[in-house]
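Q: what does this look like with alpha-L-arabinofuranose bound?
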Amino acid sequence: MTHASLTIDPAFAVGDVDPRLFGSFVEHLGRCVYSGIFEPGHPAADENGFRRDVLDLVRELGVTTVRYPGGNFVSAYRWEDGVGPDRRTRLDPAWRTIEPNTFGLGEFVKWCAAAGVDPMMAVNLGTRGIQEAVDLLEYSNHPSGTALSDLRRKNGDAEPYDIRLWCLGNEMDGPWQVGHKTAEEYGRLAAETARAMRMIDPRLELVACGSSGASMPTFGTWEATVLQHAYDQVDYLSLHAYYEPLNGDVATFLASGARMESFIEDTVATCDHMRSVTKSSKRINLSFDEWNVWYMSRHQAEEQPGGWRPAPRLLEDHYDVTDAVVVGSLLIALLRHADRVRMASQAQLVNVIAPILAEPGGPAWRQTIFHPFAQAALHGKGRVLRVEADSPAFECAAGEVGALHATAVQGEDGSVTIFAVNRSQTSPLDLAADVRALGEVRVLEHTVLTDADLGARNTADAPDRVRPRPATGTSAADGTLHAHLPPVSWNVIRLAPVS
Ligand code: AHR
């Protein structure tokens, strides 16, 4: 047994959590839309073809925003194909699939209302530009009396969609992107698109594309150049990152949260540097609008994307216990930077690298990674406290990383939730947390997600094989909380003041 400690003191806060930190992402990719959220004819489908079983799980997951329609898909997308009675079937070059466009903007907005989430819309800045972005905005948000707002009304939606959150393109730094651009080209286009969109609707919140990953050769200079052009026009810069165990290196995989934190801190540094360069008074915050575990190297080796078929099975990772613990650590990393990472979207929501799996005509169930997200979204409301953990460190490709990764969130009622991951593969941690500053507290709950078989997964036949379970032996007395954190585990410990 090794010892770990941390101190919780409400006097030291990171900042308030924006509920949009718990966003998700629906792309026209594989079976995320078709036979994911939308499957007319499914026994659980409602009158719109939305799967009610999936909607129930989305609500339980606690998702607050959903980014749409891509992803790489958006960079060749014509939104007009997906509205009105005459839908056009198109080739999707990003994933080499056939896109029937039977689900489009109007369906998405209706689905968001059913799911109780806010839409986050991306515009195509790959093959298209300012005019199409402004047209889409007029169709979406203008009440009536213009060609495009009246077209929306004719298509059955009398009320404006009032979409406030917009992404200015997707991963424009990536050579794989349709319409890939240099930072100079993209920075100018993003700035002018933002300016034109704000002329139509000044209430918008706009996200410019940052880097598609910290290992991109342009990381750092991309952000600086884009912000040189667009600093005053945008509110957020995006980050994207996916993690996987490479060559069986589980230690480094378990340290993914540390790598995510470095990526965030480096991006914040560039944003703040550009604040002084541009002499601006505002701060650019971050939208981490794609993050997850993704076994990308396996897909690259095995999958020929699409094959020009509609809704093929693409990127359908089946997650195990270790993946769930890493996702928990990624959530901790986001919370620990909640002052600057105001929004985030786990990629993606259903079937495609997703917390929810849904079979065509069959059941939907929670993957292992569903649980840390749902618990963080449920209990991660309030103010993040600055928690400095002390624990034995191990060496890996991410550097020297402590076994304990933790954060704490204080709710309005004074309760405090500690989210803690033990990254060690061998040693349980005996945690002693100094909670004297909270006054007298009692332990409401300690759940732990771990397993003797770290490769265990949830399946249609055993959908609850992996889930958080009550932990035993957790106590709080005389200002110290004691808890046992098994190796490779995700822990949620809830404390309430004794009044
Ligand atoms: O989420 C899957 C893909 O990953 C998205 O389409 C793209 O933006 C990223 O590269």
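Residues 27, 29, 70-72, 170-171, 212, 290, 347-348 surround alpha-L-arabinofuranose (CB under 6 Å). The two ends are 34 Å apart (CA to CA).
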